[in-house]
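ERR on first pass: missing label on line 2. Operator R.T. fixed the label and resubmitted. Corrected input:
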Amino acid sequence: MFTRSRTLARIGGVPIQVDPTWFLIILLLAWSFWSRFTTGPPTHPAGVALAMAVTATALFALSVLAHELAHALEAKRRGVPVGGITLYLFGGATEILSEEVKGPGDQLALTIAGPWTSLVLGALFGLIAWPSSTFSPGRRWTAAVCSRRWPGRSPATGSEPPALPRGQASSWAP
Ligand SMILES: [Zn+2]
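pass 2 clean. output:
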C-alpha cells in the first residue's frame, strides 16, 4: 500500500515506517499552530509561537505513534504477527495479519488498544492544560509578557490590536 515509505526506527521490534505524505501533514499542522499562536488571542512573539508550534506538532506526531504502537504491541502480546506501522497523510496505520487473530476477544482487545491510548493521552493533556486556562493570575502574566514584546499592543492601556472575526484565526485540530 505504501510503496514510497521508509523504515526510520524499530520500537519493541515493530518497524516504524514513514510515507512522504506524512511530512506534508506535519508541515501543514505546524504552520496552522504557528498561525494560531501569532494571531491569537492571545498572541505570542514569533519565536515563542514557533517553539510552541514545533512542540505541539511533535506532541501530535507522538500521539499518533502511541495510538498505532498500542495496536501493534497488543497484537504482538497476543501472538499476532505485526508487519509494521506506517505514518502517512491521514495519520497512522498498523499492519496486522488478521488471519492470525484467534477470536473476537483478541480482535476487540487489539482494536480498542489504540483509541484507549488516545483517550488516556487526551485526558492527560487536558489535565495539564486545565490549570493554565482556569487560574486568571497565569493568564494576566501571559498577557503582560506579550504586551511588552508584541508591537501591536500598548503596555500602558493593555489594549489589543483589532481582533480577527471569529473563526478566521481558528486552527485545524486533529
Ligand atoms: Zn486505531
